Amino acid sequence: MSLEDGIVTLEMMDQLLALAPPEKAPERPARRQDLGPLWIDDVGWWLRQHGAPIVAEGPYGNGATKYILNPCPWNPAHTNRSAFVIQWPDGHISAGCHHNGCQGKNFADLRDVLEPGWRTRLERARAERREQVGERPREPTKFAGLSIRDVLDMPAPDWLIEGVAVRGSLSVLYSQPKTGKSFLALDLALHVASGVVWMGHATRKGRVVYVLAEGQGDLSNRIRAWLEQHRGVPVPDDAVTFVLRPVNLLSQADVDGFLQYTATMPEPPALIIFDTLARCLPAGDENSAKDVGEAVQALDRIRAETGAAVLVLHHTNKAGQQERGSTALRGAVDGMFVLVDDSGSLTLSCDAMRYGARFDPLPLKLEVVNLPDGQTSCVVRFETHRERIEALESGHLKPNQQKVIDTIYDLDHGDGVSWSQLEETTKTPKATLSRILRDLEATGYVTKDLKRKRFRLTDRGKDSVSSRFH
């Protein structure tokens, strides 16, 4: 190679480039087992090294391997093979437990249990690596993200009462005072404790803790009445535990003490009932978003640490249309249930439901029970369609049914009466009015013009109008 007249030819440049040492490609950091839970090459080996209770393993999906752990590493009370670990073909690892009380658990959480201190070792290894490459250390964060696959692997809602309450959920049952919500809550508690179907909804048998902060004096008679009405239903003596004093939800000491008490039970409670919210906020203001928010935080802590469904009994406002106090409560809960008493006819309706469709309104009866010693109490029970129809067929009209018949008679000037007119005039809740009209149609008291959607009385209906119209 020579240089003439100061000119460098392309051929000379190629020769120079050929003499240069080849450029070294940047090295990819080696995958190290201590650099995070997703970098374990063989999770089966890792599980065995750390004593995981593997009871089954095998192919899963498209090339993945699934391991079943029993008992659950996070909660030894979960002994129905509910915990799992999956290693996907790309090396990614998922883990969890199908119980709602373990919702959100992942492989990092499993590593906390089986390999304590791994996060410290991980951060130390990352710090060493940052020092080697001159990176600035990142601030620690409490936030963690889930991939789509992680989300799809999350367990489905674990229903304690099918279509009504999920384990680990927070719900509110509200009504006007003296409507029967405590009778209803006791009925629900005893059905869950015995594992029998409640109002047509399947239940999963479990321990119940009932915080009865008011109305304790009649508790014995109420339980006796329920047992009298449900003879043959086995309810273990210790299946329901009654706490006959309020738990102050704004007091950390009270909440700590309550959780310590539940931790001494043979198994975690499946359902915890607080009756009522007002009694469990002795120094709080129901209208204060701050106080209600703190109460919700306490309830969230209780359901998180116990895995139980939590039901809070509450009252309506003066108008009787909504729950009393701050809307922060409604915004925080998973279910809102309202019990309405319309002239002696009870209806339980679902106002809001986070985990699925709202259940259909339930027609209920508060029935008097005569006890063997001459005392009386009441029980709540489902009123069947057949019972309602048979009563109407025999001419026995309930006050709310009579009110609808009288309203149609009073407003019908030859053109029938619309639904909106009936709803506005009778002030009957929609679910109750719909059921009344269906029953009156089925028994021949009312007829409906399907095209114009207006209601008129039949001859039988006219014969049943109150005497004040004659």
What are the key terms here?
alpha/beta, 4-stranded antiparallel beta sheet, elongated, 3 domains, 15 helices, single chain, 470 residues, 9-stranded mixed beta sheet, Arc Repressor Mutant, subunit A, Rossmann fold
Topology:
Blueprint: H1 10-19, H2 43-49, E1 54-60, E2 64-69, E3 83-87, E4 93-97, H3 107-114, H4 118-133, H5 148-153, E5 159-161, E6 165-166, E7 170-175, H6 181-194, E8 208-212, H7 219-229, E9 240-243, H8 252-263, E10 271-275, H9 289-306, E11 309-315, H10 328-332, E12 335-342, E13 345-353, E14 362-370, E15 376-382, H11 385-393, H12 399-411, E16 417-418, H13 419-426, H14 430-442, E17 446-449, E18 454-457, H15 459-463
Parallel strand pairs: 7-11, 7-12, 8-9, 8-10, 10-11
Antiparallel strand pairs: 1-2, 2-3, 3-4, 5-6, 12-13, 13-14, 14-15, 16-18, 17-18
Helix pairs in contact: 8-9, 12-13
Count of extended strands: 18
* Strand order in the sheet with the most strands: 9-8-10-11-7-12-13-14-15
Count of discrete structural domains = 3
What is the CATH class name of the largest domain? Answer: Alpha Beta
* CATH homologous superfamily title of the largest domain: P-loop containing nucleotide triphosphate hydrolases
**Mean pLDDT rating:** 85
Helix content: 25-40%
- Tell me the distance between the termini: 127 Å
**Biggest sheet: strands, sense, closure?**
9 strands, mixed
GO molecular function, one term: DNA-binding transcription factor activity
InterPro entries: ArsR-like_HTH, P-loop_NTPase, RepA, WH-like_DNA-bd_sf, WH_DNA-bd_sf
